[in-house]
Amino acid sequence: MDVRLPKIGDSADSGTVVSILVKAGDAITAGQTIIELEQEKAVAPIPSSAAGTVAEIRVKEGEKISVGTVILTLTGASGAATAPAAAPAKAAAGAARPARRAQVIEDDEDDAPLADAGEDGPIPAASPYVRKVARELGIPLSRVTGSESGGRVVLTDLARYISRLERAVARAGRYADEPKGLSFAPVSTDFSVFGPVVSEPLTELRKVIASRMVENSVSLPHVTQFDDVDLSRIEALRKQYKAAYEKAGARLTPTPFIIKALVSALKRHPRFNASVNEVAQTLVLKQYYHIGIAVDTDAGLLVPVLKDADKKSLLQIAQELTAIAEKARDRKVGADDMKGGTFTISNQGAIGGGHFTPIINKPESAILGIGKTALKPVVTAEGKIEARPMMPITVSYDHRIIDGGSAARFTVDLVKALQEFPETDVKL
After folding, report:
1. Which residues constitute the domain of residue 111?
2. Does residue 399 have an active-site annotation?
3. How many domains is the chain partitioned into structurally?
4. Of the residues 269, 290, 355, 399, which is catalytic?
């Protein structure tokens, strides 16, 4: 039998073969990983749908394949998984369906066309509150598919409908309010006429990074706030507790301190932990704190997310940061590891350099850039000049929802939280 590439996610239907983990003649089991596939910024393991002996490998490393492509052929196959139906079957009226959380906006019918303005049908059942929310958001209930018994519409159905609208806009290639002049035709230039050149293909990851950076920089009005942080207190705390943290299996770098201080500032300034819903024209103020950590890898920039930073101790954050960095550099970060971020940190301190202007990781509303800490002369409150470890920071923010005064106050609070870091948060 042929083992084909299954559909992995709601929006992923193709990828590039990074590695082939089996060879002809190998006996494999159902569920065993046979290849690793790069999709956007993530590398996903692809399991075999059946057990048997590999007769032929039908793909090559570096080859781009899509859903349904034959990966390999098996002989003596057994335990084959049932092939998924081409389209999800509709639940019968009254049939039980698993409950969905309000945060979940993935749609089983992502590929189904959205109803046109003139396709209004009968209005489904819904509670008065759901009807009120739909009315305020301008969503016709007749176009929303209900997930509850009898087609009853609940809040998660509204969220899923909005998500489908957003993805439809994204697939169209531009935002509704984006000036048409921002779409540029590809240009091919023969640079060899000016001198010797070497060409290399752009990786799928680099293409994704390029696309995202262009979209983020063009569609968001960026403004950047600059400041410097005196790390004298944090350096003293690091020196005092470094050995204890190493015994606990963690490196006490400045980054865990930065994350802790950042969360305290985000709680005081919720718009920096928010996102704009461009379809519904609402501001979503998030009550969770998932911090994206930009990691520099040989393949390119990856941004895995440290979830629930507000609920974790400094030790837990330090331990998780080490694991995150290792997974990113080994390209073991999955798509789910890079979703759900509310604010991103780009720390170049280990490399060098000072202030820089990072690009916001849309749909987040701000990003923190960290430069290299260096000893600089500082005039103290007593009028003395002392050498202090000064860390350059920059905060880029979305000027649609954050004004300059708010950004200045946020930066001042962040600097204060770092310079007055409480020792109680460091003690084990």
Report:
1. 98-177
2. yes
3. 3
4. 399
Tell me, what CATH number does 266's domain have? 3.30.559.10
Asked if 400 contacts 226 with a C-beta cutoff of 8 angstroms, the reply is no
Is the pLDDT confidence value at 216 over 60?
yes
pLDDT digits (tens, 9 = 90+) for 43-100: 778 889 889 999 999 999 888 888 889 999 998 876 554 444 333 333 333 333 333 3
Residue 88 lies in a domain: no
* pLDDT score at 80: 52
Give the predicted TM-score (pTM) of the model.
Answer: 0.64
Return d(Cα 259, Cα 264) in angstroms, integer. Answer: 9
The verdict on 251 and 328 lying in the same domain is yes
Q: How far apart are CA 234 and CA 423, in angstroms?
A: 9
Of the two residues 105 and 316, the one the predictor is more confident about is 316
**How many Å apart are CA 87 and CA 112, to the nearest integer?**
9
Same domain (yes/no): 295, 384: yes
Are 226 and 355 in contact by the 8 Å Cβ rule? The answer is: yes
Those residues whose C-beta lies under 8 Å from the C-beta of residue 390, and which sit 6 or more positions away, are 228, 229, 230, 231, 373, 374, 375, 376, 378
